[in-house]
């Protein structure tokens, strides 16, 4: 393999990861559709802005999204669709079967044994590197410096967070398990498994007890949802609060978008977990 061109190696890797060998039916440049904004941050390392679009509109998450007729037109016009898989985005499953001539990059299929089975795959830098390699193969492009840039961002994140790994925190909903595992952080609990499910009074009282005891030093809210629930638990307690956006809508879609996302995420955790 060492004598094969880098482009051919990248293409073979892509096909072995995906199991999808169907060619793109159109001529380049190809239209690439990312189901959610964070996947577009990864795709932008390869795809120019005018060829890249995002299915979910700003301020919306997969938890509360339903397809409109105009969205179906966007899907139909794309050559390559990057999505989070049938479990996380069931509204795309039928279209993956209906239009098999398109390249469907199912990020869920890149999951390795031992990784959390959570559909917020973009919080796993390793999975995003594999997804970017698969996309590079589909587009017949070199993967470039993406893996190295992600690794550099991770090294800086680990240096920042290593002294804070024992400090407990709550998140608003269980979206960050991949990141918590990668950074070896101490996530004590979540207000809810999914934003559609409200926690019961026993859960809220247990969380308040953990805050009172000092077991938890930081509580994260999310911009898409009302902070009233979080405020009801932390009211009157000396605990730091931060904000995490699970769809990274504040990060611009640029060539460095995904490494920028990692660094921003690390800084948000460090600010809230720091004892200062």
Rg estimate, integer Å: 20 Å
Shape: globular
What is the overall pLDDT average?
88
Total DSSP helices: 10
Walk me through the structure.
- The structure is a single chain.
- With 276 residues, the protein is of the alpha/beta class.
- It contains 10 helices and 8 strands.
- The protein has helices at 6-18, 37-43, 69-77, 93-98, 125-139, 146-161, 177-183, 201-213, 228-234, 257-273; strands at 32-34, 52-54, 80-83, 103-106, 168-173, 186-192, 216-221, 240-243.
- A 4-stranded parallel sheet has the order 2-1-3-4.
- Helix 2 (37-43) links the parallel strand 1 (32-34) and strand 2 (52-54).
- Helix 6 runs parallel beside helix 10.
- The protein is globular, with a radius of gyration of 20 Å.
- It starts with 5 loop residues before the first helix and ends with a helix.
- The model is unreliable at 1-22 (pLDDT under 50).
Give structural attributes.
four-stranded parallel beta sheet; alpha/beta; 40% helix; 276 residues; 8 strands
Short description:
The chain is an alpha/beta fold and 276 residues long.
Note the topology:
Blueprint: H1 6-18, E1 32-34, H2 37-43, E2 52-54, H3 69-77, E3 80-83, H4 93-98, E4 103-106, H5 125-139, H6 146-161, E5 168-173, H7 177-183, E6 186-192, H8 201-213, E7 216-221, H9 228-234, E8 240-243, H10 257-273
């Amino acid at each position: 393999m060492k004598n094969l061109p880098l482009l051919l190696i990248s293409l073979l890797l892509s096909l072995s990861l995906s199991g999808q060998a169907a060619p793109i039916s159109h001529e380049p440049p190809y239209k690439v559709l990312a189901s959610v904004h964070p996947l577009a941050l990864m795709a932008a390392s390869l795809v120019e802005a005018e060829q890249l679009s995002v299915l979910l509109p700003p301020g919306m998450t997969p938890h509360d999204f339903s397809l409109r007729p105009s969205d179906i037109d966007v899907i139909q016009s794309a050559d390559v669709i990057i999505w989070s898989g049938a479990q996380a985005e069931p509204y795309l499953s039928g279209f993956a079967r209906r239009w098999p001539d398109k390249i469907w990059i199912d990020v869920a299929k890149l999951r390795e044994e031992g990784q959390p089975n959570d559909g917020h795959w973009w919080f796993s830098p390793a999975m995003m590197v594999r997804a970017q390699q698969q996309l590079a193969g589909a587009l017949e492009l070199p993967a470039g410096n993406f893996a190295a840039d992600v690794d550099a961002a991770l090294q800086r994140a680990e240096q920042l967070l290593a002294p804070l790994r024992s400090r407990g925190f709550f998140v608003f909903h269980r979206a960050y398990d991949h990141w918590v595992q990668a950074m070896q952080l101490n996530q004590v609990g979540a207000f809810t498994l999914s934003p559609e499910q409200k926690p019961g009074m026993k859960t809220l009282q247990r969380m308040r007890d953990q805050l009172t005891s000092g077991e938890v030093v930081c509580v994260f809210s999310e911009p898409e949802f009302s902070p009233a629930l979080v405020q009801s638990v932390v009211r009157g307690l000396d605990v730091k609060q931060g904000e995490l956006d699970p769809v990274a809508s504040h990060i611009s879609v640029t060539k460095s978008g995904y490494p920028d996302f990692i660094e921003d995420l690390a800084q948000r955790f460090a600010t809230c977990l720091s004892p200062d």
